[in-house]
Design goal:
Number of helices: 13
Shape: elongated
Distance between the termini: 52 Å
Largest sheet: 9 strands, mixed
Helix content: 40-55%
Order of helices and strands: HEHHEEHHEHEHEHEEEEHEEHHHH
Number of strands: 12
Length: 342
């Protein structure tokens, strides 16, 4: 528990043992933790030097152990410094270290993009080989903080479906807005439809089209990965990673265009189903969300009142906007009134 604050396992054991006592001798803590008394004393002295432990000055109880005696001195008793005072600087330092790491990451990323020695590399990287392609794919998915946009086509080549599912689940757990457009043939794989059910239930927004021009993953609209033709790399899987540029903007535009035309998939007891044309009307649950939003209630409050997760409210709102062809909630309200939804 305290290793993140810089305490090793033995130090944490002595610290937490002392936590349960007003004061204690080194011998008492050694017996309780099973650590040698000399080592316990050394740890206590180190914790004292770091301000986490103090030598107790008030009279204590119990007879001193001769083994605790120094040269002509009574054995020391120790007490904890209040954790709120002693541990706060360690926590601040950890936060500062993380901030410095994030700053360094941003500087290195920007330097890489703008370096004069690699003008093309700042926009496009070529990645060749199964391991390299899989590594970059996982980097994009696991590094996403806000949004992932994905095209799925045919059978996976470089990244097994099980590994892709693990990265997918990690992104959903972080609250990443995850939208996927799949080509119809993607669902032809064994058990694919069944495997998609938990992901959709966890917040994955999935739509289906007859065909797609390419596979693709876009992370936070800052970088994308697109496979290259296998024939261009001597039979090895290869891909390009595209950084922020006009090309990346075009790929995002392509995704949004396919997304708008695709049909949503929903879970069923046995798998998933494609939304039929007759389903292009708001459901009762979506209309409940719409009524609250038009009343000026925030997504979070709407989720609380309806007993839903905020992710479900956001997903229902997104579908309402798709049904209305709206780019804003103001346009959604106008369309809802015109269509007689409420």
């Amino acid at each position: 528990m305290l290793q993140a604050l810089g305490l090793g396992p033995a130090e944490e054991a002595v610290y937490t043992a002392l936590l349960a006592r007003p004061t204690a001798y080194a011998r008492d803590l050694a017996r309780q933790t099973g650590i040698e008394q000399d080592e316990t004393t050394r740890i206590l002295l180190d914790l004292t030097a770091r301000g986490l432990v103090a030598v107790a000055t008030e009279a204590g109880s119990g007879a001193p152990d001769p083994a605790d005696r120094g040269a002509g001195h009574q054995p020391a008793r120790y007490r904890l410094t209040p954790p709120s005072v002693a541990l706060a600087p360690f926590l601040v330092e950890q936060r500062n270290a993380l901030h410095r790491a994030e700053t360094a990451f941003s500087m290195l990323t920007e330097q890489y993009r703008s370096t004069a020695a690699h003008p093309a590399g700042s926009v496009v990287e070529v990645v060749v080989g199964v391991e390299q392609v899989a590594h970059r794919f996982h980097q994009l998915q696991r590094g996403a903080q806000r949004e992932l946009l994905v095209f799925l086509v045919g059978e996976p080549i470089a990244v097994p479906r099980e590994e892709a599912d693990m990265s997918e689940n990690s992104a959903l757990d972080r609250g990443v807005d995850f939208r996927v457009v799949a080509a119809k043939n993607y669902l032809d794989g064994s058990d694919v439809a069944q495997d998609l059910r938990p992901a959709i239930a966890a917040g994955l927004a999935l739509r289906l089209v007859e065909s797609l021009p390419l596979k693709m993953v876009v992370s936070d609209r800052e970088r994308a990965m697109v496979p290259l033709d296998v024939a261009d790399s001597g039979g090895e899987p290869s891909a390009i990673v595209v950084h922020r540029s006009g090309l990346l903007t075009a790929l995002v535009h392509l995704f949004e265009k396919e997304w708008a035309q695709a049909r949503p998939l929903y879970t069923t007891p046995t798998g998933v189903r494609v939304e039929a044309a007759a389903d292009r009307q708001p459901t009762k649950g979506e209309l409940e969300v719409l009524a609250l939003l038009l009343a000026g209630i925030s997504d979070r409050r709407a989720a609380s009142q309806l007993g839903l997760s905020i992710r479900t409210v956001e997903r229902r709102t997104r579908r309402l906007m798709d049904l209305a062809g709206a780019d804003s909630r103001l346009q959604l309200g106008w369309h809802a009134a015109r269509a007689g939804w409420l």
